[in-house]
C-alpha cells in the first residue's frame, strides 16, 4: 500500500533527520492516483524514516540539473539523510534537435555545446551529471545511492527479453567514480517480471511500455528494496522489513 510522502521541498524546513530524498523521472514520481504511477512513494511503508519524493516527470539528469533540482535537495537535506538518484529514460536522443534533456555522448568528461530555449548551454555526459550531484550531496554529509533505471515492459513482444541499455552501465560507472553506493534496480525488476509472466506484467502497463499502473509500481518498488537488501547498501539500515519477493542477483 502506498503511504503519504512529502512531495514539496517548500514543506521541508520543519522536517528533522532522517529523510530519504528521491531524485528521478516519471517512473519514480508520484502522480496523485492516476492510471499510472511511479514507484517512489511505494517504498514508504517499508522504511522507518520519512520520504521526500522529488522525482519529476519528463526529466533527465541534465534537465534536473539545469532546473536546479539537485541543488534544491542539497539546500534542505541534513547530515545523515539519504538521496536516491535514478535517471535514464529521458537521457537519450540527439543534440541536433535539442529537447533540453539529451546528454552529451560519452562516459567521462566530454562536453557538448548547444543552444536550448535561446540560451547557450554546455552539456555534460550522463555519468558526469550523476557524479556532480553525488558530490553535492556528499558534501552535505548525505548517504548517496545511485540506482539503474527501470526497464520497459520486458514482455512487450510476447517473449521475455531484457537487454539493459547504456544508461544502466553509465549509472554503475558514475557510482564507482563518485564513490557512492549502487543498486541495479533494472535487473531486479526484470528478474521478478520474468517470474510473474506475460499476462501479469502486461497488465502493469495500461498506457505504454514504460509507465506502470499502481499495482506495477508496488512491484517495482519492492524490487528496488530487494536490491537494497541483497546489495547490503546503507539504506538497508532503515528498512522495517527485509521480506521482499525475488532472488538476490
Q: What are the key terms here?
A:
alpha/beta, five-stranded parallel beta sheet, two-stranded antiparallel sheet, 7 helices, SGNH_hydro_sf, RhgT-like
Strand content: 5-15%
CA-based gyration radius: 17 Å
Spans of at least 5 consecutive residues with low confidence = 10-15
Helix content: 25-40%
The helix-strand sequence is EEHHEEEHEHEHHH
Number of helices: 7
Strand order of the largest sheet: 2-1-3-6-7
* Biggest sheet character: 5 strands, parallel
Shape descriptor reads globular
- Gap from first CA to last CA: 25 Å
Beta strands, count: 7
The secondary-structure class comes to alpha/beta
Mean pLDDT: 94
Fold topology:
Layout: E1 19-24, E2 50-53, H1 61-66, H2 69-76, E3 82-86, E4 111-116, E5 119-124, H3 126-138, E6 143-147, H4 166-178, E7 181-183, H5 185-196, H6 198-203, H7 214-231
Parallel strand pairs: 1-2, 1-3, 3-6, 6-7
Antiparallel strand pairs: 4-5
Helix pairs in contact: 3-4, 5-7
InterPro entries: GDSL (IPR001087), RhgT-like (IPR037459), SGNH_hydro_sf (IPR036514)
Protein name: SGNH hydrolase-type esterase domain-containing protein
GO molecular function, one term: hydrolase activity
Describe the structure concisely for a colleague.
The chain has helices spanning 61-66, 69-76, 126-138, 166-178, 185-196, 198-203, 214-231, and strands at residues 19-24, 50-53, 82-86, 111-116, 119-124, 143-147, 181-183. It is built from 7 helices and 7 strands, in the order E-E-H-H-E-E-E-H-E-H-E-H-H-H. Mean pLDDT is 94; it is low at 10-15.
Amino acid at each position: 500500500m502506498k503511504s503519504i510522502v512529502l512531495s514539496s521541498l517548500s514543506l521541508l524546513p520543519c522536517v528533522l533527520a532522517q529523510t530519504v530524498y528521491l531524485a528521478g523521472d516519471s517512473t519514480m514520481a508520484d502522480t496523485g492516483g492516476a492510471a499510472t504511477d511511479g514507484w517512489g512513494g511505494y517504498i514508504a511503508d517499508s522504511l522507518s524514516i520519512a520520504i521526500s519524493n522529488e522525482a519529476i516527470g519528463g526529466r533527465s539528469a541534465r534537465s534536473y540539473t539545469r532546473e536546479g533540482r539537485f541543488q534544491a535537495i542539497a539546500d534542505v537535506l541534513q547530515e545523515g539523510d539519504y538521496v536516491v538518484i535514478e535517471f535514464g529514460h529521458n537521457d537519450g536522443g540527439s543534440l541536433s534537435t535539442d529537447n533540453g534533456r539529451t546528454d552529451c555522448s560519452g562516459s567521462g568528461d566530454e562536453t557538448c555545446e548547444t543552444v536550448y530555449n535561446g540560451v547557450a548551454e554546455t552539456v555534460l555526459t550522463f555519468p558526469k551529471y550523476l557524479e556532480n550531484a553525488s558530490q553535492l550531496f556528499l558534501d552535505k554529509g548525505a548517504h548517496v545511492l545511485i540506482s539503474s533505471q527501470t526497464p520497459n515492459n520486458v514482455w512487450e513482444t510476447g517473449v521475455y527479453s531484457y537487454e539493459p541499455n547504456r544508461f544502466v552501465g553509465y549509472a554503475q560507472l558514475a557510482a564507482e567514480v563518485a564513490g557512492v553506493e549502487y543498486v541495479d534496480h533494472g535487473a531486479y525488476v526484470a528478474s521478478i517480471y520474468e517470474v510473474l509472466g506475460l499476462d501479469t506484467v502486461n497488465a502493469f502497463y495500461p498506457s505504454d511500455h514504460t509507465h506502470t499502473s499502481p499495482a506495477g509500481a508496488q512491484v517495482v518498488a519492492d524490487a528496488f528494496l530487494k536490491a537494497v537488501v541483497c546489495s547490503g547498501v546503507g539504506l538497508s539500515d532503515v528498512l522495517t522489513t527485509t521480506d521482499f519477493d525475488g532472488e538476490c542477483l
